Amino acid sequence: MPPFWQFVALLATHWVGDFVLQTSFQASNKRKRLDALSSHVATYTLTLFVAAIILFGLTVAVIFAAINGALHFATDYIMSRLSSKLWEEQNSSFL
């Protein structure tokens, strides 16, 4: 498969794993509960891993999914807590 279509496939897989397969429990609790965040990242990483096996083969897929999953966990952990803090500060400034 040409690199452009691999990229498109990875973008589509990211969307499915990060948004479509995210449960309401994960979405509403990942900012305050590590179990919710961990299950979200596990679902996302597994989805990406399956697609990466098809696109790149098993060896590359393991490395790619592991790095991507770790980065996704770190990103969601930091951003969800930062956005929660900013949201609370914005709401309290109107009181």
- Main beta sheet strand tally, sense and closure: none
Helix and strand content put the structural class at mainly alpha
- Judging from the principal axes of the Cα atoms, what is the shape? elongated
Order of helices and strands: HHHH
Intertermini distance? 56 Å
Ranges with pLDDT <50 over ≥5 residues? none
Content of β-strand: under 5%
Roughly what percent helix?
A: over 70%
Average pLDDT metric: 92
- Number of DSSP-assigned strands: 0
Number of helical regions:
4
Cα gyration radius (Å): 16 Å
Q: What is the domain tally?
A: 1
Task: Describe this protein's structure.
- With 95 residues, this protein is mostly helical.
- The protein has one domain.
- Helices cover 86% and strands 0% of the residues.
- The longest helix has 35 residues.
- The chain is elongated, with a radius of gyration of 16 Å.
Compact description:
With 95 residues, the protein is mostly helical. It is built from 4 helices and no strands. Helix 1 (3-20) packs antiparallel against helix 3 (34-56).
List the helices and strands and how they pair.
Blueprint: H1 3-20, H2 24-29, H3 34-56, H4 58-92
Helix pairs in contact: 1-3, 3-4
Question: What brief labels describe this structure?
Answer:
95 residues; mainly alpha
